[in-house]
Amino acid sequence: MASVGQLHMLFTCPFCWKVRSLLEHLNLEFETIQINPLKQKKSLPSAPEWVKVPVWVENDGEIYVDSTPIMKHIDNNFNEGKLWKSTNEKRRDEWMEWVDLRLSKATIPILYGSIGSALKTTLMVSKLEKFGFFSKRIYAWAGFPIMWGIIARTRVKKDGRKPKKLWHDLLTEFTDEFNGSPFFGGDNPDLVDIAAFGYVRSISPYVQFKELEDHAEGMKWYRAVEETLKT
Q1: pTM
Q2: Fewer CB within 10 A of the end CB, N or C, for the chain?
Q3: Helix H segments across 61-207?
Q4: Which residue has the higher pLDDT, 147 or 122?
């Protein structure tokens, strides 16, 4: 099967995991272009107008940005829009917004919510991403005080819950919406399931993922979506 496009991405970006998961769910061949996090303004095909990942470039040269619009486009272009179709569009739209607002903001607290977690995460990021020799070492030791001291602590303090408690509450809220079905989409995952799965999956390379694994219903859903991926 020929590649249908290029995904310009960071390996550790939760928004990129959303798009990757959709492409794998649909069993589409694609090329991954892993960029240097410190050189996005110079290396992304959408720059300088858009300097965030993911960026999706199809074989005809068309460029698409922003993870959820990219997912909708891929589903429409390669899957006849089947994953986005719904008999209850209001519910679908509300929960896609919930996923993009609530789950996306919960990833930083779980990964950087304590100084120990932040150090472990930045060390892992420095190994997984395509840094240069010196920038890798600078990020590994200078990145975690910023992520923990400025960003993660602010979010944890504002929410008031420990990161594990926050994630367990979110997973409970999400899975309760299934109304007895295995997925949000019913008998099969839909685009909301894949988006939510992508955010959870973005935590899986880190040791902190074990804090989510004892949420029974959440992990039952997560493993069921995982089984649909064609990797």
Answers
A1: 0.89
A2: N
A3: 67-79, 89-98, 104-112, 115-128, 133-146, 153-159, 163-176, 191-201
A4: 122
